[in-house]
Amino acid sequence: MLKLNKRSDDKMNDIEGLIIKAIKIEALNKPDEKIIIGDVIITYRQFAEMLNSKNHENIIRDFLKTAVKLFNENPVFKENILKLSSQKI
Amino acid sequence: MPTAILIAPLFDEPTQYTYDWSRDLLSLLKSKGYDVIDLSNRKISRSEVEEILKQNPNILTIHYNHGNEDCWYGSNTEKVIDLDNVFLLSNKEVYCLNCLSAKKLGVEAYKIGAIAYWGYVETFSFTTDAINEFKEFANSGLKFRLEGHTWEESLELTKNLAKQLQQELIKSGKIIASITLERDTDALRCYTEKNPPQETKCIFRKIALKLFGFKLGWLLSRRIAISLILFGLGIGLFIHDRIVDWVKLECRIHGLDVGFILVFIAYVLLTFDFIKWLKRR
Q: I need a surface site. Which of A54, B94, B134, B217 has the fewest CB within 10 A?
């Protein structure tokens, strides 16, 4: 059971890793675009830096949770993430 | 002539966007024959909003700006609607583009009889590389409603539109925007009589919703719940002690037992009538 859980955690981490890489590539391609979360304004450049941090803030954690859900449910999204994440940063 | 109040204050960078988006709604409302009271492009005070809502009992009420779980803002310091004056939303259709207000304020508005409350249970987010898509999504609910759809249909149509917009964003490589739009879509709610709020963290509310259904479960107040629990505990204690007495001593019925049974019947009858009255509201 523990092994199974570990395997699914590893798989989740792999997916998150791919998503983080794809998002970073997109963010670095247009660093001055912004994401506005309520009254918080973050440029894509800052967003990419936040993704580098090991202890993700709540904003990033929630964002990644949604991204993983999309990755599992939306084949076009998955395809795009795989395509983007195969590029070099 | 139907009337609408459009509250779209402007005092920081995010509100610049929401103010711009609200201009499309203004044109739309006017084209549909609405007389629009436009409170926008500045800081808005609580008193002016309250005055208009009091004078126009059936006014379509729209707020485009910052919000929180329990309020809408008119400026960075002043709340124009919160839990103290939420009663002003009774009998009104309410359409919000603000953060979080469907979480608590929207539920209260539903409980006090708002016809519809459109809003978000999480922070509303958007990205500047997909401004038009986010604007289309944010305004679409009211657009569908003004085209003649019910609020429930408008919610479904808006969620479908969000899926289409999201696919377009993904195909054009706007991954961050597509994730952000997904989060907004997940957070969107529209509370109506046919579509009551269904989420709560309160364990007693959960029990009430399970026992009495969504419509009635939301109308029961905390005091009613406490009175029911205290009554149940009281009965339990009384019955326990009487059984102990009966086992120890002989089975004799006192006047106290009869009095208790009468009080119990009276309470059940009152509760029954109270629930019937709530259901009629």
A: A54
